[in-house]
Design a protein that fits this description.
heterotrimer; A alpha/beta; B mainly alpha; C alpha/beta; A: alpha/beta; 4-stranded antiparallel sheet; 12 strands; about 30% helix; globular; B: mainly alpha; MetI-like fold; about 0% strand
Chain lengths: ~350, ~300, ~325
């Protein structure tokens, strides 16, 4: 009987320092109209500052979540971390090693093995023409992690069991599975190379709530059993609250607040964080109203001057319109807000039903 | 075991159902298979070997088809003979074989070329993409026939007539192949752009697979559907182009006649009343092309989920 | 039929089928409910539960080959499920408005929004072009579009997602409909915009006494918006009742599982309640109660007989444990526990 294969050593070998560090990471996208249109119609170049200077340290074994509305750059950060996009500026360190080492080098391949990604759309993230067995076996083969066909088979069967599927499912094609089962297959594939670090880009937002609960439970079990570290991207604050150790709130490509989960939800500092928390639906029917906040996220092509949130912020003053706030330490959290820095905006305690 | 499993899956598939429920395509397939069988089994099935001069006798010349009941009709030559005593039926069988060889090989050639350029164009993007696609635009401004004529003309200018007859088959395959790649390249490029952004391709990139491997293992199998549709329709078109070229006298020489060559040879004597020499090859060509196109049209609809 | 408390919409034993070559799929099966004027009924369920198809059947926009195979739909007492296409089209604009998930598909990108609004208004109301335009501007103001006088001449792509959904709502309100069927109206929007749209829908509903059938998978939206909730599972109604009772004191084991699986703020790091397995495909709906293979309280009868909606302590639930004859499932007590 093949045993369930341990995914990674529960205790990381070099326990000092963060596992992942992002140093003023920037990623700009050129979305200019074609050259001909620029010349003939005089249209200007357009640059989207999708990620504009993000500093994060992710400790071993923790779940760091990035939240924000669409277009805030959280998914771009995820893709930068796993190397799907090169950074425009800044760097990523993994376990003390610089990720910008040349593609294809042995070091790079070693780092890649140790980090994997789980994607949002379970219908697009599995190649429809491959059998589930081959999908899960691909990383094992690509990194040469098994010596024989038997060993691959044993590993894949073990992975299928880990995600609560059966080895017989390996012979099927993705379309024979439901959305939740497909997401399990994605997780099995991500675990196949025995990574320590998983980047999860909205892994449950395409799923129904009851299936979401299954996947979140599974992810938390895997983390506990194998000491995994997660970078978790989501727009669902309740999910983020449930699963995270620390949370970073992003707005228009920049972090506006980083704090431990409880601190962030109970003592939000940044006005945008407060606004986001106000939008959490009140399932406990305490009669609390969602606070509709005026305005929408501005275009990232022409972000507002100064603090990007100032057009929607009830506390904005002249300084906010002109000067961009830095992410500064404030009572154990980091906040990018002039009003908080100047003491104009006192911390606010929040409580939630169920306590 | 695996085969039985495959057959069971095939028998249960939507494609098979759609095939069974379309009488037109069933008939077209039967007709196509019949013509293919007759053509490729010509050396066994054909009553005569029309292009072996040793077997020809001028006394058999210009016999009318049996069904006309005219004088001289002979069951040995059911569709009559031409002015050199060649059996028309056997000529058609050998000619169809040649036409199909040209059509299929030219289609494969253009398919491989088009897929390769399309993959490169779609995956690399940027200047390479722009160059290949502009090349395709230029190519499209010339009718395929003109491109084939041009290539054939250049080759003729380069080598002797003697040599040309020997390699005529390859020249015409190359000429037709080169004039049909654009459609594949554009289709593949479009599909690559769509597939490239899908998450399963990103997942493969995350584990560091090389772009070439990703193209071959992941993207290519997912863009083959539309390519096969184009290929099916293009076999008919390629056969037709070959016939046109041969009819114009720039295709296959009369020593290795294809259907087109037969029609050209036949129309020279058409006015003398020997209609069968040209009509039968012509009808065969028409039936073949129509049948193949019907299959292609069906395949396109069957693979298009929007039309289901 | 036209008493003061007569329901605006009555759905009786609605059955929607999709004939396929492998047999007929029953996507909505024996669904009955009422909707009173001015009431907001939330219809929840997981994807494939049949909630959107129920909505589509009511507005007469089932995509062929889907069809209403049985049952009746009455609007203000008159049957609307068997009307010819033209008649239904007129009712659809005049009495029933529709809001869909993706505002872009509801608006024609080639025309300015003003033209679309004015055309819709003139189709259903006898107004001159000028009067219709005035009404269109008024509607845009009502749904909270700033600068409505100038924005009316803009094209859909010039609006942001949230603003577009407001335009769609204005479009649905053109002829002052009695009923609005809103299918996932906030799903494509950011959370902060969702709150705005929900607040708007509620306000309109209150002011115009328009009934709303709100189809969504988002329990948060339902909890804040709906008066009553219908929970669907595998094409059938599992439970229906006042929103508070369904959310907090659900009677049906499926509803309880569904509510428990929603992460809430306040408790963290524990296992979420999960319903094992997944909803059956329409081709493999189990005999008896469709939920029985996943049900923690399953009894013998559940695998044999299909339960109808029965009065439960607070709601109506299709579950044998509330059988008045008392031949319930094994664990009656678990309900009250």
């Amino acid at each position: 009987m093949p045993e369930a294969v341990p995914v990674t050593r529960p205790v990381p070998q070099a326990a000092s320092g963060p596992l992942v560090r992002l140093n003023s990471l920037k990623r700009y996208f050129d979305v200019s109209p074609p050259w001909l249109a620029r010349v003939l119609e005089g249209k200007p170049r357009a640059i989207v500052q999708a990620v504009d200077g993000v500093d994060i340290e992710i400790a071993r074994g923790e779940t760091f979540s990035l939240v924000g509305e669409s277009g805030c750059g959280k998914s771009t950060v995820a893709r930068l971390v796993v190397g799907l996009y090169p950074a425009t500026q800044g760097g990523i360190e993994f376990d003390g090693m610089d990720m910008s080492v040349r593609r294809g080098s042995a070091d790079n391949s070693a780092i890649r093995r140790r980090m994997q990604m789980i994607f949002q759309d379970p219908y697009a993230s599995l190649n429809p023409r491959w059998r589930v067995f081959d999908i899960i076996a691909e990383p094992i083969r690509a990194f040469g992690l098994a010596a024989s066909k038997d060993e691959i088979k044993q590993r894949v069967d073990g992975l299928l069991r880990q995600v609560r599927l059966t080895p017989a499912d390996g012979a099927k094609f993705p379309h024979e599975f439901s959305g939740g089962q497909r997401q399990r297959i994605s997780i099995a594939r991500a675990l196949a190379s025995r990574p320590e670090f998983l980047v999860c880009d909205e892994p449950t937002s395409a799923l129904d709530v009851s299936v979401q609960a299954q996947i979140l439970n599974l992810m938390m079990e895997l983390q506990r059993d194998y000491g995994l570290t997660y970078l978790f991207i989501s727009h669902n604050l309740a999910v983020v609250y449930h699963i995270s150790t620390r949370v970073g709130v992003m707005y228009l490509g920049r972090l506006v607040e980083v704090a431990a989960t409880d601190t962030l939800f109970r003592r939000p500092r940044h006005p945008y964080t407060r606004m986001l928390l106000d939008t959490i639906p009140d399932l406990e029917m305490t009669g609390r109203r969602r606070m509709p906040v005026a305005g929408e996220v501005p275009s990232p092509i022409n972000p507002p001057t100064g603090c990007a949130f100032h057009p929607r912020c009830p506390f904005a003053n002249d300084r906010c319109k002109k000067e961009r706030p830095e992410l500064l330490a404030a009572e154990g959290t980091r906040v990018a807000c002039h009003a908080v820095e100047e003491g104009r905006l006192p911390a606010e305690e929040r409580s939630y039903a169920g306590h | 075991m695996a085969f039985v499993d495959l057959m069971r899956r095939a028998a249960d598939s939507d494609i098979w159902y759609s095939f069974k429920s379309s009488h037109v395509v069933v008939v077209a397939t039967v007709v196509t298979l019949f013509i293919f069988a007759m053509a490729f089994l010509a050396p066994i099935l054909a009553p005569h070997t029309p292009f072996d001069p040793a077997t020809l006798s001028l006394s058999d010349a210009l016999k009318p088809p049996v069904l006309t009941g005219e004088d001289g009709a002979d069951w040995a030559f059911p569709l009559g003979t031409d002015e050199q005593g060649r059996d028309v039926l056997s000529s058609i069988m050998y000619g169809t074989r040649l036409s199909l060889v040209v059509g299929i090989l030219a289609t494969i050639f253009s398919m491989v070329l088009g897929i390769a350029l399309g993959l490169i164009s779609g995956y690399v993007g940027g200047g390479v993409d722009a160059f290949i696609m502009r090349l395709a635009d230029v190519q499209l401004t010339f009718p395929a026939l003109l491109v084939a004529l041009l290539i054939d003309g250049v080759v003729r200018g380069l080598i002797s007539v003697q040599r040309h007859d020997e390699i005529a088959l390859y020249v015409i395959i190359g000429a037709i192949g080169l004039s049909f790649w654009v459609q594949y390249a554009r289709t593949v490029r479009g599909s690559v752009l769509v597939e490239k952004s899908k998450e399963y391709v990103q997942a493969a990139r995350v584990i560091g697979l090389s772009p070439v491997l990703i193209m071959i293992r992941h993207v290519l199998p997912n863009v083959m559907g539309p390519v096969l549709v184009i290929a099916t329709i293009n076999i008919g078109l390629a056969v037709l182009t070959e016939a046109t070229l041969s009819f114009l006298g720039v295709g296959l020489p009369s020593t290795q006649p294809s259907l087109g060559t037969l029609i050209r040879l036949g129309q020279e004597v058409l006015l003398s009343g020997t209609w069968w020499i040209v009509i039968f090859p012509g009808v065969t060509l028409a039936i073949l092309v129509v049948a193949v196109n019907l299959m292609g049209d069906w395949l396109r609809d069957a693979l298009n989920p929007k039309l289901r | 039929m036209t008493g003061a408390n007569a329901p605006l919409l009555e759905v009786r034993h609605l059955r929607v089928e999709f004939p396929t070559r492998r047999g007929t799929l029953v996507a909505v099966d024996d669904v009955s409910f009422d909707l009173a004027p001015g009431e907001v009924l939330g219809v929840v369920g997981e994807s494939g539960a049949g909630k959107s198809l129920t909505g589509a059947a009511i507005i007469g926009l089932l995509e062929p080959p889907g069809r209403i195979a049985a049952g009746e739909i009455r609007l203000e007492g008159e049957r609307i499920d068997n009307l010819p296409y033209e008649k239904m089209r007129r009712i659809r604009g005049a009495k029933i408005g529709a809001i869909f998930q993706d505002p872009l598909t509801s608006l024609n990108p080639l025309y300015g929004i003003g033209r679309q609004l004015i055309e819709t208004i003139q189709t259903h109301l006898p107004l001159s072009a000028q009067a219709a335009r005035a009404r269109a501007i008024e509607l845009l103001k009502e749904v909270g579009i700033p600068g409505a006088e100038t924005r009316i001449d803009h094209y859909p792509h010039q609006f942001s997602g949230g603003m577009r959904q407001r335009v769609v709502i204005a479009l649905a309100l053109c002829a002052n409909p009695r009923l609005i069927v809103a299918d996932e109206p906030t799903t494509a929007l950011d959370v902060s915009i969702q709150a705005q749209i929900i607040a708007l829908l509620k306000k309109l509903c209150r002011e115009h006494r328009t009934a709303v059938m709100l189809v969504t998978h988002d329990m948060g939206v339902i909890a804040e918006t709906a008066d009553r909730v219908a929970v669907m599972y595998a094409g059938r109604l599992a439970e229906i009742g006042p929103v508070r009772d369904v959310v907090k004191n659900a009677a049906h084991p499926y509803t309880r599982g569904l509510m428990g699986s929603i992460p809430s703020i306040g408790e963290r790091g524990h296992r979420l309640t999960q319903i094992e397995g997944s909803m059956p495909r329409l081709t493999e709906i189990p005999k008896g109660c469709a939920f029985n293979p996943r049900c923690p309280d399953r009894g013998d009868r559940c695998t044999r007989e299909r339960p109808e909606l029965m009065p439960a302590p607070t709601t109506q639930a299709a579950c044998w444990q509330y059988d008045p004859a008392g031949v319930g499932t094994k664990a009656r007590e678990t309900v009250d526990a």
